[in-house]
Amino acid sequence: MSQVRAPIVAEVDAVVVGAGFGGLYMVHRLRELGLSIQGFDAAGGVGGTWYWNRYPGARCDIPSLFYSYTWSAEVQQEWRWSEKYAAQPEILAYAEFVAEKYDLKRAFAFETKVKSAVWDEATGRWTVTTDRGDRVRARFCIMATGCLSMPRAPDLPGQGTFQGSTFHTGKWPHEPVSFAGQTVAVIGTGSSAIQSITEIAKDAGHVYVLQRTPNFSVPARNGPLRDKEYAAFWEQYPAYRQMVLEGTAGIAGGSPFRSLTTEQQRARFEELWNIGGAGYLGALADLLTNPIANDAAANFVREKIRETVKDPEVAEALLPDDHPIGAKRICVDTGYYEVFNQDNVTLVNLRKAPIEAITPAGVRTTAQEYSVDAIVYATGFDAMTGALLNIDIRGRGGVSLAEAWGDGPKTYLGLQVAGFPNFFTVAGPGSPSVLSNMISSCEQHVDWISDCLAWLDANGVEVIEADPQAQEDWVRKVNEAADKTLFPKANSWYIGANIPGKPRVFMPYVGGHYRQICNQVAAEGYRGFRHSASTVGATQAKARA
User: Would you identify the CATH topology of the domain 9-150+383-544?
Assistant: First the structure.
């Protein structure tokens, strides 16, 4: 239950929405600028995605040593990761460690959902309201709401009739959950399902895995981080840090397909398969642009699935066949395909027999009814835009963000939206975001925004917003970059395919050299942004345009 508190009525320099890794660092940087801040988060504490996603087996799919802040050498030295791929409790503890060390929690009101953010053209201020009665006016409104923070609610007939326990991987209970001896249905086979199924199956009496679309998954090869691995990391840390700062955020890796013999290709696939992790997608430089190269990489994984899963019929049902490998976010697992060799795990192929309804006893497909004690919905998220559009955000002329994005999200650099002055998004649509190391991408956006705010004050600029033409040009660039790849060939959450009625637009930027582009825009006096020394001047400039 939320703690009772008086509503916050205040005027500050900046409102920050979200206390994940982006929001925490944003508060830190704003404090360095001497700005007053009010933060909000619906969660009961810091951590963002890692506060909510507590499902069994939840862990990062980027090595822990890299899934870390780079802005604080002190934090890097003091914190010690225990595993190659850290589990959710450890990642959350890391966020809490940073928040405590830099006293960041004090800036946030937790257990507070932002309802609206409305721009007042007369005063040049945002008014932010919440479900706790808060009303805060701010010069800047900064959304660090996360890309995977709006769980997709399942929509199946009869859901309210089920008599057992129901869970969603994206909003897992904070108290321990035991499936010992129970019969469990897991609906979905995306990342959260692939991670949780292997853990649930350790204790459950039986697990039914209800799969509509098989996904590619590669082994994590997880294990403890030893002293020698840490020593090696610190030896190369300066080079790694420089690589992050100069990163292109592109999709290339390895050598081109046609430069390697069949034997060399296979050796490369085998090498990366044995190393483990999503680095498998770096096997070939053109893996995500050349269909032939992609097929070679995909067929290798299919072979591994057939080798691993003993039942040939089950193995064939687990083979992804409707999208290029990597065009949907590749999953990283610990024993996922092996789990189907257990007697207590049954794959239910929903392509052959779709779900008809949820019943009081469990799940009914067109073939049969499965009586279960618990249902786990691993049905994903309304990615990238869901959390933003869940807030009533209104810019110039009272135009809502939902209206501005009626045909899909439009931003300039993933940082600002035309018609929404002094409004910034951290890792927003139109930036590399979910196709990159999210912590590094959040850091880059926060640094860019902070430098921008410092530049505004140094130059007597009151208001900044994306120029509509620059925004259109950037959206076209994002689309053109995606069209040169195999990403659009998958019905993924990258294009909103998992949300009925959502415009089909490829949302991340995959064109490469993103940091350099952002830096150049700033170096040229924030090219592509309109700025004015007064709110009146900005309004007049917009009227003249």
Answer: FAD/NAD(P)-binding domain (3.50.50)
